[in-house]
Amino acid sequence: MAAASIAVTAPLATACGGSGTGAEDGKTLRLWHYEDKDGALGKAWAAAIAEFKKTHPGVKVIFEQKTFEQIQQNASMILNSDSAPDVLEYNKGNATTGLLAKQGLLTDLTSVVEERGWDKKMSKSASVTARYDADGEMGGDKWYGVPNYGEFVLAYYNDDLFKKYDVTKPTDFASLETALAKFKKAGVTPLANAGNDYPASHWLYLLALAKASRTWVDDYQLYKGKVDFHGPEWTWAVKKYEEWLSKGYFDKKDVGLKGADMSEQFVSGKRPIMVSGNWWFGGFTTDIKDFTWSVAPYPGAKMTLGSGGNQWVIPTKAKNKKLAEDFIGITMSDKIQKLIGENGNVPLAVKSDQITNARSKQLIDAFDQYQKSNGLAFYPDWPVPGYYDALVAATQNLMNGASTDSVLDELAAPYEKYLSTRR
User: Fold this and answer.
1) Which of 206-215, 293-302, 379-388 has the lowest mean pLDDT?
2) Which residues contact 243 (CB under 8 A, 6 or more apart)?
3) Is 2 in contact with 277 (CB distance < 8 Å)?
4) pLDDT tens across 191-203, in order?
5) Are 197 and 3 in contact (CB under 8 A)?
6) Distances in Å between the alpha carbon of 43 and those of 33, 140, 280, 294, 345?
7) How far, CA to CA in Å, does 228 sit from each of 63, 189, 386, 406?
8) pTM of the model
9) CA angle 398-179-157, nearest 5°?
10) What domains can be seen in the chain, in order of their start residue?
């Protein structure tokens, strides 16, 4: 998941439905999650809890709202104790869900997922981060989590600026570069960006995807084959990035900016195009008041950054696993999935024609396009622990004028070092 999508703050703990330590008689469900109550997912999980109470009238629900950091930092210790909840929201990936699965701290949900048909409600690419192998690496054959929503990188357009400068919205890479050139000729820097955070490295990966196959993505992300960092994919990406910098499509001064600065460039109407995650979508619906905007699939590649979202997991030491399964089933129901979509997020189990919010339909249609084509290519920092910082540094060096070869070497070094010690 991208950094901006997990920057959740919440009270340490609150309870609904009573208090206590839970029981082993199927009469108590202990649940944790870290979503803000006013966000699409927070609203959806609150509705799911209410639905669970209605359908399980004799069951006490003890809900504790955690921060993302609390769960991330303490999960192994807590889940290996008698204080483990029955179900919790947890981050996807080899270093999180995969690690806990490998340690034996999470319940294998494969038979439950298949019996309840949850695997039929999402694409194979969206479920990769829910499935792990014996080494805790994603894409395996056992389900240890159930995602309810999707996340991905797409294009945000300032429709008013496109109209003002008579620029046609792009539909492929060639028309994207045509649009960028036309805006720049009119004196407008077209692309929002931020070098001191994930956006700039996301751009670099997007450019690599323009020349990449699915096999290349699986080699890079799932270690299925060797990746040549001086090969055509990364080399073309770095050179194209350099070209766009020289032409002024990116502003070199963005090298020190954070993701929030990038979003402000778009919200303020200064940059007509922002390519980033759907995690900005909800905020834009309330923050943008002075112009019309729209979303669409990124036009420069058939694949994009993205995956299934964070997921519900059931600890091995959960006392009431059947109740936890019932709750997850409610979050996969049409009612809760529609609520996710209406409030500006991407449900995995309902289609856009079931959503009334017009702009949300654009968002869901874009995600579905990638689901159908196996076009979710995950995130560039996922393959290697600590790789995020290396990617940010390499992209900043690129923006500051480093040579193509030095940037490629900088990208390759931590990746290849990790692979050499992986097994």
Assistant:
1) 379-388
2) none
3) yes
4) 999 999 999 999 9
5) yes
6) 12, 31, 17, 24, 11
7) 47, 33, 20, 14
8) 0.85
9) 90
10) 3-148+309-350 (3.40.190.10), 152-306+380-421 (3.40.190.10)
